[in-house]
Each structure stands twice: as C-alpha cells, then as structure tokens.
Amino acid sequence: MKKVILMCTLAVLMFACKSTSVTSTNTDRKAQVAMKGNWVISSVTYPGSQYIKVNTFQLADSECFVGSTWKFISNNNKGNMALTKANCASFNSPITWFVNNDGQFVLKVLDAGEKARKVRDGYILYVANQTASSFQLIDKIDVGGKMTDVVYQFQKVN
Fold first, then answer.
1. Do 32 and 104 form a contact (C-beta atoms < 8 A)?
2. Full residue range of the structural domain in which residue 87 is found
3. How far is CA 17 from the centre of its chain?
C-alpha cells in the first residue's frame, strides 16, 4: 500500500512540475481567423540587410521569400507556402501553423504526405501589426552576438 501511495505522489509531482511550452499554450483564435486566406510576402527587412544573408527556415535566402505565396486555413491550422521568385530555387510545401495567446506564430514546414506530429522541428515567430489586409511575422536571429529582428511583411491577396 505504501508503494502505491508513493507512486501516486510521485506521479502528481511530475505532472505538477510540467514546464510550459509554446506548443501547449492556448491558441489565439481571433488572430488565426484574421490570417485565414491567401497572402504574399511583400518585403523582408532587417538592419544590415545589405551586409548579411539570412537563410529563412533553412530553405533559402530571405530575399527569395519576397513574392512567396502563403495560404492559411484557420479552422484546421493547415496551409501551403510556395517560393516562386526568379533566380531562386522554387519550393512548395504544406505547412501547419497556429498563433498562441502570447502572440507567437508556430510554424512547421512539412514534406508531402507527412503528418505534423512526426515533424519535430518548427519555427516560432511573433505576430505584429495585424490588420484585415496585412500583418508581420518577426523572427529573432543572432547576428554577431546581437539579437536582430527579421520582419516578413504579409499582404492579403484578393
């Protein structure tokens, strides 16, 4: 009997001390519904952009994302992204995404037919300046020991 009580106590303590994660936070439904639809990245900006290269999502140079098309489906948190800029490698992939209550945009880039739960790597960006026709996703990168914002400006496509 003592072993059962000890095991129950340990189990309660383990779950009580569970750390929080951006992926376990409640979603911001209002922000997600506002992102529903088709979007294009109109610009990518960051300080020192003429001197440094940013490899966005480990896929391509950040400049290759200008003109990329994105589709966000808010009711199932799925979508698609496509890079189509000339002189850049073309890329098309399904995605899963959500916005948590802390204003963090959580993104997973999937291979065709791959389930999101099988993908362990993802990206966390911050949502800013959201309107009905535009919003920004902000990525924080380390440039020479200094955190720098990379701003992806999205415009709604009608």
1. no
2. 26-156
3. 27
Entry pTM: 0.78
The model's pLDDT over 59-86, given as tens digits with 9 standing for 90+, comes to 899 999 999 999 999 888 899 999 999 9
Residue 99 and residue 131: Cα distance in Å, rounded? 15
DSSP string over 52-101: ---EETTTEEGGGGTT-EEEEETTTTEEEEEE--TTS--EEEEEEEEEBT
Q: What are the helix and strand counts (H, E) for the chain?
A: 2, 10
> What percentage of the chain exceeds 90 in pLDDT?
47
Return the CATH number at 37. Answer: 2.40.128.280
